[in-house]
Specification:
The protein is of the alpha/beta class. The protein is 27% helix and 22% strand. The strands form 2 sheets. A 9-stranded mixed sheet has the order 3-2-1-4-5-6-7-8-9. Strands 10, 11, 12, 13, 14 and 15 form a 6-stranded antiparallel sheet that branches.
Length: 335
């Protein structure tokens, strides 16, 4: 079945803690944005962390059940990882599940530092090592981590040669394959290798799923119902349409104002009104206090008031749909 970390991701309940954009490797397929790549910045989801309390606030805002620690290479800032993981465990209890993604093969010293704080180690061995995976430090690290009580996973992008990882399966709890994704930072490298976008709506690369077939078969097949073996395929579409949507819903449920409507996609919808007579103009008498919020140059309110009672709300009117917690605007419709 799916790991606890993956189940929480499916529920949108896993906070992403991006510890640093610094990384000692230069993987051509790395999808990290220019805003984060090679920069020693920390983010909890999309919130930049300036104080450790920012991490707790973000976790509470989305009712996080767990955290995925990533980068860059998070273990280049191992003291930071330890501090933040201890903070999360102290605040939310040992049941707050933490998995850590690393391109390294952590040695015993690093694993001891993470023991009791990180529940699952996810290692990403570089593609050039797959052919001889059993003779790498990644297998040594997997053995040591399992002996110390960690769950152990290899997580890699879908690339040619995935079948070379089959011999590693007995040493792992899980092996995750992420569908190869196109991004602004790897687009040139993708083109130079003859890859293209699947279509105009998704970031997936055609053919990436075929590369995974032998490994999926060896590990128990697909897990569409969550009952497969230890090899799991995570598609680009699933990340966009399920994981992100469910996370947005959790945030919206905690942050939406009383007059905002939460959509099935986790966005919020509200009305934007600039009164015809200016901000000094009187409001409709029956407008309840929890149905609007006044700003210096406009009023935000339930969107349906503008469409159902246009004569009561003369002036500039718009319906706005955006990500929750004052996120980016998805759609703006003038009325």
């Amino acid at each position: 079945m799916l790991s606890k970390a993956c189940r929480q991701c499916c529920e949108g309940a896993k906070m992403v803690l991006f510890v640093t954009g610094i990384c000692g490797k230069d993987c051509w397929y790395c999808p990290i944005s220019y805003e984060r790549k090679d920069k020693d910045l920390t983010f909890a989801n999309d919130r930049q962390v300036f104080d450790p309390q920012d991490i707790i606030d973000e976790a509470r805002m989305m009712s996080a059940l767990g955290t995925g620690v990533t980068g860059g290479e998070a273990l280049l800032r191992v003291d930071r990882v330890v501090e933040y993981c201890r903070l999360l465990k102290n605040e939310f209890g040992k049941e707050h599940h933490i998995h850590l993604y690393t391109g390294t093969a952590p040695n015993a010293e690093i694993l001891k530092k993470l023991s009791g704080l990180v529940d699952e180690i996810r290692m990403h061995p570089p593609q050039e090592l797959w052919k001889d995976i059993l003779n790498t430090k990644y297998i040594e690290s997997a053995k040591a981590a399992k002996e110390m009580g960690f769950e152990v996973t290899i997580e890699v992008p879908s690339l040619p040669g995935l079948e070379y990882l089959i011999p590693a399966l007995p040493y792992l709890d899980y092996l995750n394959i992420n569908e190869l994704e196109w991004s602004e930072t790897n687009a040139e490298a993708m083109r130079s290798r003859g890859y293209s976008l699947e279509d105009d709506y998704h970031n997936a690369v055609p053919g990436a799923e075929v590369w995974a077939e032998k490994l999926l078969a060896a590990g128990g097949g697909r897990c569409e119902d969550g009952t497969c073996g230890k090899v799991h395929w995570c598609s680009s579409t699933f990340k966009d349409s399920v994981q992100l949507r469910e996370r947005l819903k959790r945030i919206a449920e905690n942050t939406a104002r009383p007059f905002e409507e939460i959509t099935e996609d986790g966005t919020v919808v509200y009305g934007y009104w600039v009164p015809e007579g200016g901000m000094e103009a009187p409001l409709p008498e029956d407008l309840e206090e929890d149905m609007y919020e006044t700003f210096e140059d406009h009023i935000e309110l339930a969107w349906w008031l503008l469409t159902d009672f246009p004569e009561d709300f003369k002036g500039e009117k718009q319906v706005i749909e955006k990500y929750p917690n004052d996120g980016m605007i998805v759609e703006l419709t003038p009325l």
